[in-house]
Structures are given as structure tokens and as C-alpha cells.
């Protein structure tokens, strides 16, 4: 196990101490377990020591015992010049990281001085450096898929740094400064020599970098800009793909000679990135990212899951059935418009952009894919999460997507470019659900910590935290009028509450499904009503377009609809054996419900006949449980997805011209 430790700057040479500090100096690393710094950080034990400091694993007593890394800089045995340089390096790193927030960067929590030594408190991250991973492979090459994944994650964080104002140039990208967690999430570490780009300055004040990875201009020939980081990224990718250590032969890179036509363009891209001529390199990391995404898409769709056709599949003519020879036969229906392939694990959520042009799908494979809703072609693959993605929501203007993940974060990112706008890290557990307010100003998220967080969609600042649930919250929905939120999950309760006023103890409604009881809290006086049957975990809630009714699907094989104002049940459907109901979605016109279940079907129910629903369509195109269902904004199409790893777009009412 390694710990993220951004190295303390040295003064004896032109590089930075390796981010993993080795044990050598007895003047630091003397803190013992249970020693408490600043009456807040309880030391668990040392991780490493070096000439300029030590690193400890500790718990933060003020924030629920979260694990942190405490970096200690010794102020002993240093000349005044060295002491000043070390303190400047630590302060520079602290100030720079404090101004940055990105999923692939460590967070900084505190900086202080205690007993003559300076401390920096940061994220504790388990894993290893890419340098160690390369060493563990020996003579084996890293799988290309993994290299592409690492490259895309590094592009995302470099793109973020380079688009700050002023831009941040990292200047020391190399395998030793890249951490990879067991979940294969990347962290860029060691900001000791990162700097802001200064327009008009001819060269850098000091030549710093690592031999083999540093661009020629970092040796004092000119001021480093974003293209210096592109060079270092290219050198790192070249090493990962070939196993050749660039520090042994600086500025000399052999062609990759990849024997895979689906990787066309990768060789040229990497060689352009490591060109000694700065003008021959890509101008921006965004260009590198776009080319890597193109290669990933090309490689993925040409090498799909065993027996599954690539890309997307157009349906046969009406009355004809496809006879594709697949490991998991996809039985195309006459109303299937297209079947989208690409995810390599179950799909947890699908959502249409409000303008109806795009469709997004979230998967346990840690990605979100954005598809052209008309053709079913993938437009972008978002890989910012390092654990499975459970839910997603579009902003009302169709420009941004919020995605919730088991990595305990919600990312808000640009649907066209993948650039991250916000990384919300307020939850203490996995995040299962996310919903955007109709006015676009707030986002609600919930999950394993049994809390619903309501936060500012522009800044990520927490506005309100709803703590009334007793167990994991699995689903949340914002009423279309924006006045209420419905939340539910494993405690078998549906809570309806006002996100703007609940902190003033405004009345809220609780739909409780425990044994055979149904209870509601309409004011301060609870009342109960007996309901038939048994009840289980609530998997999905959905509001009617007029915000008057609430539908819920649960593990008890039932779908029920409540009057949201009176708490009266107006409709119940489902029996044991009819399949666990995973998802319920209300049509934009409010006349139909679409229900996805474990019986591998999606049913459309007509609700217009005296609340006695009748099934008007049963879609059987899936070969696994249906977990996600969404209506197109115009109400003519449905997207469904689930365990079979496909997104299927189909006509909701095929009999209607």
C-alpha cells in the first residue's frame, strides 16, 4: 500500500523528491500512534520519512474520523536558505492545491505549525504510483485499454489545470507523480514545482523537471506552457505502451508499431506529443483528449463484448426479426429504433437531454456514455469516476450532466466536452441518486449515508441536508413545480419535503411501507392506514407532470400511486411473481406510466380510465433485468437499459402513425 504524499521541494538539484518518501532521516517521523496534533489529527502511524519531512496516516477527529495524510516538514538541521526554500515549497503547494478542486487531484484540508514544524493535511489515498506499477509488470507491457484509460484521466486533470485563470502548468508529470488506486482511479500528485503561466515572460525563473519526461523548454530555453505538460504526458504514455524508460535516453522515442488497426492514430498522436519541436505538438490537452476518446470509441466498438455486435443496431423492417448470432441474443422488436452497445457492465440509469437530442447512460463500468438519440451513436464517454456510476441527471438547458457514483462523489460536467465543472464530495458514503431542480439552480443527491444533500448547482455549496431517513436512500425526485422533493429507499419510507423550508420544520409527508402499515405525517399529528400485502425496498419514485401524484416501484412486485396532497393511494398494481419493479417513469403528458422490472420487460400503462390502468404495450427487447427507463421529452420514444448492458430506444406507441 502506498500513500499519496506530495514531495517536499529540494534545494540540491533540479527535481522534486519522489512522492513516496523513503526512510532516512531520524529528525522527522517521530510522532507516535495516538499523538494528537492541533487537538484534531490523531496519528495512526508513519508512512514514510525523508530528508525534508515525514508522512503519517491519521484520523480527523472533527470530521467523523476520516482518514487523512499529515505531511510534516522538519525545521531542524536546515540552513536558513534551505529552511526558507522548504517552507516556501510547502506553502506554494498548499496555496495552489487549495485553489484547485478536481476528481483527479488530492484535496488539502489544513496547514499549521506545531512545536517548530510545519504540517500539511491532505487526502489519504491508498494505491501505488505508476512507477511502482510499471516495475511490478517487469518485462510485460501494460494492456492498451488500461493505458488509454490512464491517458484519458490524466487529460481530464491537465485540461482542468490548463484552463484555470491564469493557467496552471504542472511541469513534472511522470509515473512517480501519478497515483492509481485499487479501483484504477488516477490522482496527479506533487505540486511542488507547478506554476502559473505568465504571459510575456520569455523563460522560467528556474529550470525544473525530471530527465526524460521534461520538455526541452524546461531546461531554460523558453517559458513552459501547456505543451510542456503535453510532452510529459506523451513520454509517460510511451513508457506505458512500450516499457521503455525515457530517462535512459532523453528526447529519443521509438515508434510504437501497434499491430491493431482499431488503435489507428495512437502511434502518431504519441509521437507528436513528444516532439522536441514545440510547434509540432498538439496545441492543447483538449485536442489530445478528443483524439484519445476517438481511439477508445473506435477500439471499444470494434472489440465489443464477446458475441455482441459493435456500435448500434438498427431494427429490421416491421414484421421481421433479427437473427444476429450473439452470445446473448437481443430479440429486436418491431418498434425498436436502435440498440446501443459499448458498456461492459450493467446500466444503472438513462436520461434524455431536455431538448431531446441526446441520451445519457450511467453504468457499473464506471462510465457515462452520451449518445445521439436519433442514431444511437456514442458522442462522448465520460470516465471521471473511479467506481460504478449509479445515477445521472441533465441540467434544464441540456448542457451539463450530474453523475452520482460509488466513489462518494457527484460530478457535474459538460455533456459536449466532458470537462468537470463541480466535484461534489459532501457525502460520507456511496451516492446512489441525483436530481436537478427544474429551475436549474440546485442539485439534490443521496445515498448510503442516509442523507439527502441539496446544493448549489453553480458552486457546489451545500444549501441544506435532510437527515430524516434511517437507512440508505436509493431514489430521489424533484417535483416538476420545484416545490418538493420525494426521497425513498431501504427504510421503506417515501418522504416528501420542501427543500427550501424544511429546515424551518415545515410539514412533510411520509409514506411508510412497513409490514402492512401505511402512515403519513401531514402536520404534527401522524395517522395510519392499513394496506394489503407485504412491502420492501423502494427502488424508484416519479412525480406526475402536474406535481399532484407520486408513483413508486418496489421490491414487493408492486407499483403504487399516491395523491401527494392527501396521501391517499389512488392506484395499486402488481402481485407476487410479477417481477420486482425496478423503475417507474411518468410520460410527459401524464397519461401513461412506463415500468421496468426483473421479468425483462417494460410495460406501458394507460392511466386515463378511471384510475384502472390497462397495459397498452409490453416491450420485450431485453435479455436481462430492466433497471432504467426514460421517456423522450416529446413522449413518443422510450429508452430502456439494464443488466444486458444495452441501451434500447423504441417507439412508445407503435400503433400511432
TrEMBL record:
Domain Protein kinase per the UniProt entry, residue ranges: 41-306
Residues annotated to bind ATP: 71
Top-level taxon of origin: Bacteria
UniProt GO MF annotations: ATP binding; protein serine/threonine kinase activity
Keywords, comma-separated and alphabetical: ATP-binding, Kinase, Nucleotide-binding, Repeat, Serine/threonine-protein kinase, Transferase, WD repeat
Key word Transferase present: yes
Pfam annotation, one family: Pkinase
WD repeats: 340-381, 382-423, 424-465, 466-498, 531-572, 584-615, 619-651
Keyword Membrane: no
InterPro entries tied to this protein: Kinase-like_dom_sf (IPR011009), Prot_kinase_dom (IPR000719), Protein_kinase_ATP_BS (IPR017441), WD40/YVTN_repeat-like_dom_sf (IPR015943), WD40_PAC1 (IPR020472), WD40_repeat_CS (IPR019775), WD40_repeat_dom_sf (IPR036322), WD40_rpt (IPR001680)
Region spans: Disordered: 300-328
Name the UniProt record assigns to this protein: Serine/threonine protein kinase
Amino acid at each position: 500500500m502506498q500513500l499519496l504524499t506530495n514531495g517536499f521541494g529540494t534545494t540540491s538539484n533540479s527535481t522534486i523528491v519522489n512522492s513516496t518518501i523513503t526512510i532516512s532521516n531520524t529528525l522527522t517521523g517521530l510522532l507516535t500512534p495516538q499523538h494528537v496534533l492541533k487537538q484534531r489529527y490523531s496519528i495512526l502511524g508513519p508512512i514514510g520519512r525523508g530528508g525534508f519531512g515525514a508522512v503519517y496516516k491519521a484520523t480527523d477527529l472533527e470530521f467523523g474520523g476520516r482518514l487523512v495524510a499529515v505531511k510534516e516538514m522538519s525545521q531542524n538541521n536546515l540552513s536558513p536558505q534551505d529552511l526558507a526554500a522548504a517552507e516556501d515549497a510547502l506553502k506554494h503547494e498548499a496555496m495552489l492545491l487549495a485553489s484547485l478542486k478536481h476528481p483527479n487531484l488530492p484535496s488539502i484540508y489544513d496547514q499549521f505549525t506545531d512545536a517548530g514544524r510545519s504540517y500539511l493535511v491532505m487526502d489519504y489515498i491508498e494505491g501505488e504510483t505508476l512507477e511502482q506499477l510499471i516495475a511490478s509488470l517487469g518485462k510485460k507491457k501494460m494492456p492498451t485499454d488500461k493505458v488509454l484509460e490512464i491517458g484519458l484521466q490524466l487529460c481530464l486533470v491537465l485540461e482542468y489545470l490548463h484552463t484555470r485563470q491564469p493557467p496552471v502548468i504542472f511541469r513534472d508529470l511522470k509515473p512517480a507523480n501519478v497515483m492509481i488506486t485499487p479501483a484504477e482511479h488516477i490522482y496527479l500528485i506533487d505540486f511542488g514545482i507547478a506554476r502559473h503561466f505568465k504571459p510575456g515572460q520569455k523563460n522560467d525563473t528556474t529550470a525544473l523537471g525530471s530527465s526524460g519526461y521534461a520538455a526541452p523548454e524546461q531546461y531554460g530555453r523558453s517559458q513552459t506552457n501547456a505543451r510542456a505538460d503535453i510532452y510529459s504526458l506523451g513520454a509517460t504514455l510511451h513508457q506505458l505502451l512500450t516499457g521503455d524508460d525515457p530517462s535512459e535516453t532523453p528526447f529519443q522515442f521509438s515508434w510504437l508499431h501497434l499491430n491493431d488497426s482499431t488503435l489507428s492514430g495512437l502511434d502518431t498522436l504519441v509521437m507528436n506529443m513528444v516532439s522536441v519541436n514545440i510547434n509540432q505538438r498538439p496545441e492543447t490537452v483538449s485536442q489530445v483528449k478528443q483524439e484519445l476518446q476517438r481511439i477508445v470509441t473506435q477500439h471499444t466498438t470494434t472489440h465489443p463484448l464477446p458475441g455482441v455486435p459493435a456500435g448500434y443496431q438498427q431494427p429490421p423492417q416491421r414484421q421481421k426479426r433479427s437473427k444476429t448470432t450473439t452470445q446473448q441474443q437481443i430479440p429486436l422488436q418491431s418498434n425498436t429504433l436502435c440498440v446501443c452497445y459499448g458498456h461492459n457492465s450493467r446500466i444503472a440509469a438513462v436520461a434524455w437531454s431536455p431538448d431531446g437530442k441526446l441520451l445519457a447512460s450511467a453504468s457499473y463500468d464506471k462510465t457515462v456514455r452520451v449518445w445521439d438519440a436519433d442514431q444511437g451513436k456514442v458522442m462522448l464517454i465520460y470516465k471521471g469516476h473511479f467506481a460504478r456510476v449509479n445515477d445521472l441527471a441533465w441540467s434544464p438547458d441540456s448542457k451539463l450532466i450530474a453523475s452520482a457514483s460509488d466513489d462518494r462523489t457527484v460530478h457535474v460536467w459538460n455533456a459536449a466536452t466532458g470537462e468537470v465543472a463541480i466535484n461534489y464530495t459532501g457525502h460520507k458514503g456511496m451516492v446512489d441518486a441525483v436530481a436537478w431542480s427544474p429551475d436549474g439552480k440546485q442539485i439534490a443527491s443521496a445515498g448510503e449515508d442516509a442523507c439527502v444533500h441539496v446544493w448549489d448547482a453553480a458552486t457546489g455549496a451545500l444549501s441544506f441536508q435532510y437527515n430524516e431517513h434511517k437507512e440508505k436512500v436509493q431514489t430521489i425526485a424533484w417535483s416538476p413545480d420545484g416545490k418538493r422533493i420525494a426521497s425513498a429507499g431501504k427504510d421503506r419510507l417515501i418522504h416528501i419535503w420542501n427543500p427550501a423550508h424544511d429546515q424551518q420544520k415545515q410539514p412533510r409527508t411520509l409514506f411508510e411501507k412497513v409490514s402492512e402499515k401505511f402512515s403519513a405525517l401531514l402536520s404534527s399529528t401522524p395517522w395510519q392506514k392499513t394496506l394489503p400485502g407485504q412491502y420492501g425496498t423502494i427502488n424508484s419514485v416519479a412525480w406526475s407532470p402536474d406535481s399532484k401524484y407520486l408513483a413508486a416501484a418496489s421490491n414487493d412486485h408492486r407499483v403504487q400511486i399516491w395523491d401527494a396532497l392527501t396521501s391517499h393511494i389512488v392506484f395499486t398494481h402488481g402481485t407476487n411473481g410479477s417481477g420486482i419493479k425496478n423503475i417507474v417513469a411518468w410520460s410527459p403528458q401524464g397519461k401513461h406510466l412506463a415500468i421496468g422490472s426483473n421479468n425483462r420487460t417494460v410495460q406501458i400503462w394507460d392511466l386515463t380510465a378511471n384510475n384502472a390502468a390497462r397495459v397498452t404495450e409490453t416491450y420485450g427487447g431485453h435479455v436481462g433485468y430492466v433497471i432504467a427507463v426514460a421517456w423522450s421529452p416529446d413522449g413518443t420514444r422510450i429508452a430502456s437499459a439494464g443488466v444486458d448492458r444495452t441501451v434500447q430506444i423504441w417507439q412508445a406507441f407503435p400503433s400511432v402513425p
